[in-house]
Amino acid sequence: MNNDYREKLLQSKKYRDVCPDTLVRLWAECEVKYKKPKDVDRAVREALHGITGAFLTPAEASECAWAMQSWHAGGRTDDQLENILNKHASTRERLPLADMDALYARIFDIAGRPGHILDLACGINPIYLAVRGLRVTGVDISGAAVSAVNAFGQSCGMPADAVCADLLCPGAIPAGRYDLALLFKALPLLERQRSGAARKLLRQIPAKVVAASFPTRTLGGRNVGMAAHYAAWMEAHLPENRAVLASFETENELFYLLEERS
Q: Is residue 256 part of a domain?
């Protein structure tokens, strides 16, 4: 009976865009906590509801596809690029494009201009990076976001690709060596799901520098001391093989650049 519930979940149309490893992981975690299959199923679906809230919806994915086609066919302007990035919440919040350009210029001034970027929990951000002439490999548990990045890279001849993988599962990080890894607003979410996950991931990332960010305002836009909270959080979760290279704040985010210890 337990397997029947799990297979139904794995084949669910509602969660078809979620990384399969995530579904299996959540089921295993909830199975330890609950005895009845119905309770396990309910707990997994509640967890998925929270995780998938930031996913591209089917409507957004369709709009994103049209926007990418327009960019490819219509002159490849910054206005068209901004229209693509506006389709997903995680890139939308860093617009306008001039602000994104300024953010990455600041990161590159500190860490150096990277030859290859690893973008973890990437959403559709690799599209922006590729258009700006950077080679990027993304990782996300959203199949829709991964498909959008790969479609853009392949159809437009851009140096962007992505894989659908769960950062809390083994083998999620693509093999290779990277100059810079991005982890925007992801570390606390991972730590909330599994204690010790943030430090473990930071220790394992094969990149010279990791740029991690944290929110500094609530969803309602209030400043309630989140920057100080996450500064202390970052210091407490820093692994032994990384050191703080720099930190800075933008209007809504706190950024840490973490370099490898020699």
A: yes
The answer to whether 163 and 139 have CB atoms below 8 angstroms apart is yes
> What confidence tens digit (pLDDT) does each residue in 240-249 have?
999 999 999 9
Q: Which domain holds residue 240?
A: 85-260
Looking at residue 238, its amino acid is L
Per-residue model confidence as pLDDT tens digits over 117-174: 999 999 999 999 999 999 999 999 999 999 999 999 999 899 999 999 999 999 999 9
Whether residue 62 lies inside any domain: the answer is no
CATH number reported for the structural domain that contains residue 159 in this entry: 3.40.50.150
Can you tell me the distance from the alpha carbon of 249 to that of 244, in angstroms, rounded to the nearest whole number?
14
Same-domain pairing of 159 and 205? yes
- Specify the pTM: 0.94
User: Do the Cβ atoms of 155 and 76 come closer than 8 Å?
Assistant: no
E strands, the chain, in order: 116-120, 135-140, 160-164, 178-184, 207-215, 242-249, 253-260
